[in-house]
Batch of 2 targets.
Target 1
Amino acid sequence: MEILKTPQKALKYSKSLNGSIGFVPTMGALHPGHLELIKKARDENDFVIVSIFVNPTQFLPGEDLDKYPRRLESDFEICKRAGVDGVFTPNPKNIYSEDEILLKAPKIKGYILEGFFRPGHFDGVLQVVNKLFNIIKPTRAYFGKKDAQQLYLIKQMIKNFFFDIEIVEIETVRGKDGLALSSRNIYLSEKNRKKALTISKSLKKAAKMSIHINDIENIKKEMIKILEVDKLQYIAFVDRDFNYIDKIIPGNTIILIAAYVGKTRLIDNIWI
Ligand code: AMP
């Protein structure tokens, strides 16, 4: 497995590959959720490249950039075992320059929900994914439905910038108890993990209710009854293009939650 530490090395490496490239961008501290993306990429491509980069520009001041879990050596082991060909782990200094050209997330869909509570977050995500796509030049890139709004915006960037890359969407991987896997779950104490579980429970309840009723207010009331989080930021109902909806549309609805449990901010969603 090649460890590629600079954009120049990664560019040269990806250029040298003769075949399709599956690319999995991550921030590391790899868990079985990431592994599903890697497995799918392995199945569908001649070569697999994973990036591990805790991207500073997508963190807002006061967020957990410095605290974000970094486990490079064990991540390398996980990648090796999963049959990854190349791991790209650049240094921020090699990715960003001073006073550079900036990318802006769309005014509406980049600034609602996650973008409202983390203004500028998606500017940073799109900035770095754009760079990564240009360096790796993948045939296919793999993203999780867990970050549904990010996935939507990346698909929009593909269209708006005419990237010739296929985006592959992967179902959210959950623990046995239903909690969506996230690198940030390690911040949760046992007590807070129990509280966090009410997020997936309430989404499951919403999915069940939506089989029979399409009244969002009713569903929301039941979700709030189940939730035992410390601070609920939003429960939202949108269609697959992130337009707000006022009734459940079977086959075209995403229900999303963002909440704090203790100091840990968690997001989850369910696709109806
Ligand atoms: P991250 O390292 O958190 O930036 O995530 C890297 C990629 O893995 C993103 O496309 C995420 O949506 C995806 N991902 C993270 N957690 C999960 C999960 N539990 N199930 C499926 N995909 C996930």
Note: The two ends are 39 Å apart (CA to CA).
Target 2
Amino acid sequence: MDMRIGHGYDVHALAEGLRLVIGGVEIEHTKGCVAHSDGDVAIHAICDALLGALALGDIGKLFPDTSEEFRGIDSKILLRRVVDEVEKRGYRISNVDCTIAMQRPKLRPHIDAMRAALAATMGVECDRVSVKATTTEHMGFEGREEGVSAHAVALLCR
Ligand code: MG
């Protein structure tokens, strides 16, 4: 079996009064991500992990933030397009693991909804998708609530 592993990392700044969408789920909060798309930091990290596994570049190469086509776009659409690229090459997703670093709000109540949304978008079983959340103990840009970051790894099989 041919196995490929990929890593992704993404950051977005937070600003008052914007929608907060993470892992395909809209979360009630006073701040949201500044972005050209809906700013879904978890999905962007997962896209880069999937693309990285096949050395297909990164999300910015596929979906340029200068393109009107992607303004305000639901990142689930981008993720589905990335999975199409994976499947076109004969690979399937073995598993995806994502960690989100955010001080506030608590993400735990939303984790299972994120896993379900991501799994449905990628067309895989929920037990192949892990989402974890951590604070950064009030340190760094996440801890100061200036931004949110996400790491992801993906394993592909053919
Ligand atoms: Mg991004």
Note: The radius of gyration is 15 Å.
